[in-house]
Amino acid sequence: MATDTKLDNLVINYLTQSQYDNAKSEGTLNSNQIYMTPASSGTHTLPAATSSTLGGVKLSDSTSSTSSTSGGIAATPAAVKAAIAEAKLAAWPIGSIYMSVNSTSPANLFGGTWERISERFLLGASGSFPAGATGGEFTHKLTQSELPNYSLSVTNGSNVIRSKTGSSADAYVQTQSSGWGIPNWESKTVTVASGGSGAAHNNMPPYLSVWIWKRTK
Length: 217
Known about the structure:
It contains three helices and twelve strands. By secondary structure, it is an alpha+beta fold. The strands form five sheets. A three-stranded antiparallel beta sheet has the order 5-12-6, with no helix packed on it. The protein is rod-shaped, with a radius of gyration of 44 Å.
C-alpha cells in the first residue's frame, strides 16, 4: 500500500528509453525521483506505481478518459485546455437557446455554430405551438369579424320618429310644414356618423431587449 512521503526536493531525470530500461532492470531507480523518456512511436508499457515506486507517467494531449497503458497518464496544458473547451460546448447541445444583454457571440465563448434570433419573443412549446414554429405580428388591424357585437338605433325626438323598433326600424324625418301648422313627415334613410381611422394597433407587451442565439451545430 502506498505511503505518504515528504520530499525535500524534486528531482526529474531525463533518460533515453534504454537507460531507463537498464536502470529499471538493475533496480537503481529512485522511488523519490521522476523519470522522463522521449516519446516513442512503438508500444511501451509504463511501470505501474507500487508502495515503493512512483511509477511511470505519460504526458498526453488527448482528452480521452481511457488509456491502453498500465501506467499513469498526465494531461498536458493543451489537453486540459481542450477538455475545458469540450465541457463548455457540451453544456450547450444543438438546439440550445443562449440569451444575454452582452453582444458577445456564444460561438466565441463556447465554440460551435450559432444562429442569431432577432425581433422574436420566446413561447413555451405545446401541441398548438410546436417547438421551432414562428408566428405573431407587431401590429394588427381589426377586421369586421373581430369587432365586438353592437347595434345602432335612431332615438325618437322632435324631428325624428321611428315607426317600429329593431335593427330595421323605418325612420321618418320632419322636412317641412304641409300647411295649417301640421308637420310633413317623409320616409328617409338615416345615416349614423362614422368615426375612427382603421389604423393598426400595437400588440407589443412590456419587454427587455436581449441578444438571442440558437445553436445549429
